[in-house]
Amino acid sequence: MKKSILKVALATSLAFIMPSVSNAQLGDILKSAAGTAVQQATGNSTITNVVTTLLGTSNVTEKSIVGTWTYQEPCIAAESSNVLTKTAAAAAVSKAQSELSNALTKAGIKAGTLKITFEEGGKATILLGKKKVAATYKLDGSDLHLTLTKIKKTIKMNCKLSSGKLQLAMKSDKLLTLVNTISSTAAAASTSLATLNTLLKNVDGLYVGLQFTK
């Protein structure tokens, strides 16, 4: 009986508190919860430096992403903070942390080296160093479908805009396809990418994220 009363009291309190919390503040709360969950599950505080974001749920419009975005850093994104409390997910993140960084570095993807331009009408261009790759894109809510013209493959990404940053998160096998297409040194990154894919492909709710700024 006491437990039921406490649950009702908690629900009532949240009903009054939540309306005063902005979307940005709520995002920070969830972000903090995600990092804390991994830290508790693994006992490794450095993992919170990688798992610092959740997938986007808000609709993204063409107008909001048109322009040139420059890559800044990678991340491992989760569908929800609950995903990170699972032992398998936490263990995968722990091992994937170094593989993600190694793979991108070997492929030449570092802060400032990768740019993606979205044009009005659904055209896109990816530039990594001197290599340019043509693409098209289509938005569907918070999903971005990026089709690489040369190989005629479409990569589904979760698209999230927050505080001037664009996050494109995808399953690890999709990252493998993307890197192999845009990088002239993808072969050097193949081992790390394959390891990353093995670690994350069977863990529901974890995605590899690339973060950009204009």
Describe what this molecule looks like in 3D.
By secondary structure, this protein is an alpha+beta fold. The protein has one domain. The protein is 40% helix and 30% strand. The chain is built from 6 helices and 9 strands. It has an 8-stranded antiparallel β-barrel with strand order 2-3-4-5-6-7-8-9. The chain starts with a helix and ends with a strand. The model is unreliable at 1-50 (pLDDT under 50).
Topology summary:
Layout: H1 2-17, H2 23-42, E1 53-54, H3 62-65, E2 67-78, H4 87-106, E3 114-118, E4 123-128, E5 131-140, E6 143-148, E7 153-162, E8 165-170, H5 172-182, H6 186-200, E9 206-213
Parallel strand pairs: 1-2
Antiparallel strand pairs: 2-3, 2-9, 3-4, 4-5, 5-6, 6-7, 7-8, 8-9
Record keyword descriptors for this entry:
single chain; 214 residues; alpha+beta; eight-stranded antiparallel β-barrel; 6 helices; 40% helix; 30% strand; globular
Summary of the model, kept short:
The protein is of the alpha+beta class. The chain has six helices and nine strands, in the order H-H-E-H-E-H-E-E-E-E-E-E-H-H-E. The protein has one domain (2-213).
The tally of helices reads 6
User: What structural category characterises the helix and strand content?
Assistant: alpha+beta
The H-and-E topology, N to C, reads as: HHEHEHEEEEEEHHE
Percent of residues in β-strands:
25-35%
